[in-house]
Amino acid sequence: MIISDEHGFVFVHIPKCAGTTIRKFIKKFNCQKDTFYGIDNHPDLGRLDLAHIPLFTLREHYLSDFEAMQIYWSFAVVRNPYYRFVSSLSERIKNYKVKFIEQCSEKEIRYAILETIEYLTKNEHCLLSHEFIYFQKQVDYIKLDGEQIIESIYTIEQIDELVADFQSKIGKRFAKPFACISSRNSNRSFVFRNNFIRGVYKTLRPKANSLIQLLPKNIKQRIWDWIYVPTHKRLRGIFEEDHVQAFIRDYYSDDIILYQSVLEAQHS
User: Fold this and answer.
1) What is the pTM for the complete model shown?
2) E strands of 111-202, at which residues?
3) Domain spanning 2-188+235-267: CATH 2.40.10
C-alpha cells in the first residue's frame, strides 16, 4: 500500500494485480517509506506481508492509515480471478518451493494446487499467512462489512484509464506511464515456452536482452511470443480440471462478481 499525504491518495496493493509495477512508478510519492513493504514480524499477527494488508486487518491494527484511506482518493486494481489464481500459485511455487512453475512436474503442480485449496478452505474468512497471501480474496481489499471502501477500482485492462485519472489527480505526468503492463497481455502471467528455451535464454542473457531492445517493436513482440507463453495456456490441462475450476468459482465467487461489475461499469 502507498499513502501520499502531499497528493491525497492511497493505492491499495492487491496481490497479483500488477501492484508491484504500479508501485515502481508511484512509490516516490509515498509518505510511509517502508511501512507497507516487505515481510516483517508483527507483535500480534506474526510474520506479515506488509505490502498486502486487507482492509479488516488495516482497520484493526493500522487505524490511522485506514482513516486516511477514507479521507483521501483511494484506488486499486483487480484481475480476472481465474488468471489470478494461476499467477498466485506460480508466485508461491517460485518463492516457497524455490523453482519456477514450468520446471515442476505435473504431479508437483497438482500437489501444490491441492495443498493450496486445502489451506484456503480451512482459512476462508481471515488474514492468510504470508506464504498464501497471494490468494487473499480481492474483495478483502475493496469492501468492509459489505460496504465498498475503495473509491476507484480498475481492472488490469484499464491501466491506461488509471494512468489518466492518476495524472489528473496529482497534476503530474509520466513520460512512459506503466508501459510494461499497458498491453493486450496485461491480464496474463508468462513462463518460458519450454525448459530448452529457458536454458538458451539464460545462457545468452544479458546480451540477448540488449539486442532485442534495439529491434523494431513488432519484431521484438514476435521474439517475446516465441520465448514466452501465458502460464494458464501452457498448463491449461491442469488448471482447467473440474475440481480446480469448481474451487475457483466457489471460493472466489465474490471476486468474480466484483470483477464483472467493474468490467460492466467500464462499458456502461
Assistant:
1) 0.81
2) 143-144, 147-148, 152-155, 190-192
3) no
